[in-house]
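Hello, quick one for you while I still have it in my head. Could you read through the record and tell me how the tokens relate to the sequence? No rush at all, and the record is pasted right below.
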Amino acid sequence: MAAALEFDPGLPISLADDFLAFEYGEGMFGPQPEMRRLDAIRPSLRDPQCDGPDPVYGIAMDIGRHIDRPALQDRMLLYGAVVYASGRLGSEPVRSQGHVHAIAPHSGWSPPEIFEIWSGKAIVYAQERAEDNPGRCIAVTAGPGEHVVVPPGWAHCVINADPEKKMSFGAWCDRQYGFDYVGVRAHRGLAWFPILTHSGELEWQPNPHYERSSLQQRSARDYPELGIDGSTSMYPIFLRSPDTVMFVSDPARVSDVWPGFVP
């Protein structure tokens, strides 16, 4: 069985009904998702000994249409699909552990990333640095069809903000992607923990292993400075105008945007 996504990503893809996986339609390529187990993310949780769904989420890196594969490879772009379990990780919502993108050898940059929510309710949390002083800390809430861009070098995680249902999204990534967990793990997580109250509301608690910081909470927005207006899904945008998403694999082409960029 398969379940339709709440937002059409412009690809023949659907959610597997009973597992953290996807079903690919005609003309598509994509792997079976790699499962992220609870034990792998425990070091970054507020309560590392908590119970919760296991696996926590499934991630399928490098999906698309067969006909588009050469263009994706030539541009060093990769499209990924992720589905999160419902439920809670102790007092926290289901989420990833947080990381910084490793430097991509071909560009010399820590690549940015474009998230497109397909179903459920997500929060993309990002902070400027995984150091004692985390810099700006921003939590962006997004629903189906909305986008969030995380700029180069920022530590970040994605959160399933609705514990009653699965959440899924697509993401444009650099083909030479890599994850750096060192700073996040050294601080036992990111600078702010999302906490679900007994009534289901989401609150934020600071991680005491960082210096004091403030948290900005925002809704998803368009990104005119990057040519993203949110009017359509990101995969068809790539097909129509590949340069629109080329800042993912070539961040230097918009280097003037990044210093003051707000996710």
